[in-house]
Amino acid sequence: MPDTLPAPVSHSQEIKHSRFTAHAAPIENADSAIDFVRQVSVADATHNCWAYRHGSEYRSSDDGEPAGTAGRPILAAIDGQGFDRIVVVVIRWFGGIKLGAGGLVRAYGGTAAECLRLAPRLPLTPMSLLELHSGFDDIGVVHTLLAQHSASKQHEDFDPDGVRLRIQLPSDQLPTLKSRLRDATRNRVSFMETDTHE
To answer: pTM (2 decimals)?
Structure first.
């Protein structure tokens, strides 16, 4: 499993008089990645290049640098350092000396990689979704067990027979939770299909 970041981090370095600053942050989705890019981009900088990865979804931008010399190396740094669900923005202030295509790749990729190498890591836990139906008499015990298994409620819907819940919890907690719910309610809780995702 890859890691994510527990909080935003930054790292700066100077390469042949150009200043490069990397800002990296955890993201919930593509929209939050683009929001972060907007927040940290500097209007008077020469370039604000970026990349993000969220599972199989990724994007990158060279922001005016020659194609493939900034965004893709930043994305390669994210993957190379074993991160997921993060965005990295590398801002460049031009210092008067041209770096050439190879130099740009090394500068953007290297600044991003060093930022992530120095950053604290937060292991990503595979999560599962579970839908269950419980009678009114068992709601109390169901909520108690959900709390004990780090389950968060995504949706709750009442019907004449009880409550239908959609919960998210760490995948490794799922078998134990199901078993304990069955025992505690004498098998009165019913489960719908589960959708596992990271």
So the answer is: 0.71
